[in-house]
């Protein structure tokens, strides 16, 4: 069997939880994750106490939190491989995290200030990461 959709942290997590020893055959193109908002147009304008919807699966949640750290919104206690909100050591804006299934994140934009969405779900909801995202993963993420 083979697949072409997962990133390395997903594969590592899968192996750990399923007791397998699958390995990567090589790198693939991974479409970027971005931060979206219906009301905020610039990452610098995020208000104190903003509600941010993030994916609830381990690997994409960690990826979303890493993106928020790259945007200088949070910091971590340590650089563990898979991060959760518990690993946040600094949250100066007192951001509130709402963990949802990845497919629900585009709809959450109506009820939250921001959502961190993978491109496959963003495109399915008519969002363009280059035009609509207010902060996006770089090509080396």
Describe it:
- By secondary structure, the protein is α/β, with parallel strands linked by helices.
- The protein has one domain: D-Maltodextrin-Binding Protein, domain 2 (3-Layer(aba) Sandwich).
- It contains 5 helices and 7 strands.
- It has helices at residues 8-18, 58-70, 105-108, 119-124, 129-132; strands at 33-36, 51-55, 75-76, 88-90, 96-100, 114-118, 135-136.
- The strands form 2 sheets. Strands 5-2-6-1-7 form a 5-stranded mixed β-sheet. A two-stranded antiparallel ribbon has the order 3-4.
- It starts with 7 loop residues before the first helix and ends in a 5-residue tail after the last strand.
Which regions have little confidence, pLDDT < 50, spanning 5+ residues? none
Distance between the termini: 26 Å
What form results from the Cα inertia axes? globular
Radius of gyration: 15 Å
The number of strands is 7
